[in-house]
Structure formats: C-alpha cells, structure tokens
Amino acid sequence: MAPKIVFRTYQTESDLDPAMKLIDQDLSEPYSIYTYRFFVQQWPELCILAYDEDTHECIGVIICKLHPHRRGCMDTHFDSDKMQLNRGYIGMIAVDKSYRNHGIGRSLV
Predict the structure, then answer these.
(1) Given a cut of 90, is residue 30 above it in pLDDT?
(2) Which of the listed residues 15, 24, 26, 72 has the most CB atoms within 10 Å of its CB?
(3) Residues 107, 50: contact at Cβ < 8 Å?
(4) CA 9, chain centre distance (Å)
(5) Exposed (0-12), middle (13-18) or buried (19+): which is 18, by Cβ within 10 Å?
(6) Interacting residues of 56 by C-beta distance below 8 A, sequence separation 6+
(7) What secondary structure, in 3-state letters, does 1-60 show?
C-alpha cells in the first residue's frame, strides 16, 4: 500500500533539521547551515517538504531557487507586455530510502 504523503512549503527554521538530515544521508556533498539558509530565506516557497501523513515524519525535500534569466525577457510576439524570463535551479532533492519508488521525488519536482 502506498503511503499517504502531505506536501508543504518551508515555514520555519525548525523545518531545516529534517531537511538537512535527509539530504546529508543521501547526497555526497556536505552543505553548511548557511547554504540551506541561503535558499530557504530567499525562496521559502521553493523549499518543499514531504511528510508521511500517518507518522508525520519528513520523508522528502526539494530546495530550489529562481532568478532572472540572463536573456532578460521572453519573446512575447503576441503580447505587447514582455514577461520576465526566469531560470530555476534545483539545489538539493532527497527522498528517504524506505519511501522511494512511490513517485515522491517526481511530485517534489
């Protein structure tokens, strides 16, 4: 039976501990607390955590950023208002090993 997963964005500094634990377990590059804070303080809406609804355990996380593309604006041939073109970046993503193959990582992205 697939686990029931709840997704939510970063809310407080207490969200960093479970996110850091997951990322440190699975990614080979160690990140300092300052790296995490760089992302979550500027783009908290792009830090998404996945929780098991039954155990309330954090079982997945994605930490991203968004910034203006160097090209500047989209080519808006049919629209007189030019829209800002942005570039996204996934800094970190991790899913607890026991919860993999349920589409959690795909949902986070």
Answers:
(1) no
(2) 15
(3) yes
(4) 8
(5) middle
(6) none
(7) CCCCEEEEECCCHHHHHHHHHHHHHHCCCCCCHHHHHHHHHHCHHHEEEEEECCCCCEEE
CA distance 72 to 69: 6
Give the pair of three-digit tokens for residue 83.
Answer: 């829209």
The predicted pLDDT at position 15 comes to 93
Classify the C-alpha dihedral 96-100-105-108 as positive or negative: negative
The number of beta carbons lying within 10 Å of the beta carbon of residue 29 is: 8
DSSP string computed for 82-109 = PPEEEEEEEEEEEE-GGG-SSSHHHHH-
| pTM listed for this prediction | 0.82
The per-residue pLDDT of the chain, averaged, comes to 87
- Give the whole-angstrom CA distance, residue 98 versus residue 84: 40
Q: Which residue has the tokens 């997951």?
A: 22
